[in-house]
Amino acid sequence: MSNKINVFAILKGNFNTLYNVDKEMYSVMDILTFYVLPLSVAYLAFSSDYVISKDVINQLVNASALLSGLLLNLLILIFGLKDKLKQPKLDDPEYGEITLKRTIMKELYFNVCSASLTALFLLCFSIFNTVTSNTIVLGFNVDTGIINPVIIFLSIHLLMSFLMITKRTYKLLLSI
């Protein structure tokens, strides 16, 4: 894959934000919330041949396009806020607080970048759903077998990510 479009570093950085520094391990609850829950619901949709209605797909296209724009604007805000946080010095009495804010800012950056990608992928898969409507390949329905479960996973993952980003932004802006 071309380095210009390789997004694995962003996805890895986002996953690493689920690490709990105090406990020196990944947060099981976070992994369950952001990955296992969406995968479980997607699997249920797959196993029951759930079909997402065209109205829902249209709404997802609109919502994911709007969220992509909002998240890109949030990236610009984070970039601006980064300049307001001073570089911590070891002898500074607020060293711990400044370091924590900078860490949260870095994690928030990965979260927003990843959520932007998720919204973009959701948009693409929603469009694929419209294009491949009722397509059967080798006796396999592409919509209910692949595209719909991916759309469900991305939708739930994006919802959880958006909630986390909103909370982190709220906490960060309150403390600056």
Set out the fold topology.
Elements: H1 8-16, E1 19-20, E2 25-26, H2 28-47, H3 54-84, H4 95-131, E3 136-137, E4 140-141, H5 142-175
Antiparallel strand pairs: 1-2, 3-4
Explain what you see:
With 176 residues, this protein is mainly alpha-helical. It has helices spanning 8-16, 28-47, 54-84, 95-131, 142-175, and strands at 19-20, 25-26, 136-137, 140-141. The chain is elongated. The mean pLDDT is 88. Helix 1 crosses helix 4, helix 2 runs antiparallel to helix 5 (142-175) and helix 4 (95-131) runs antiparallel to helix 5. The termini are far apart. The chain has one domain (8-175). The protein is built from five helices and four strands. A two-stranded antiparallel sheet has the order 1-2. The protein has a two-stranded antiparallel ribbon with strand order 3-4.
Structural class: mainly alpha
Mean pLDDT equals 88
Give me the Rg, rounded: 19 Å
- How many structural units, i.e. domains? 1
Q: What fraction of the residues are assigned to beta strands by DSSP?
A: under 5%
Could you give the order of the helices and strands? HEEHHHEEH
Number of helices: 5
Give the distance, in angstroms, between the N- and C-terminal Cα atoms: 39 Å
Structural shape: elongated
- Helicity level: over 70%
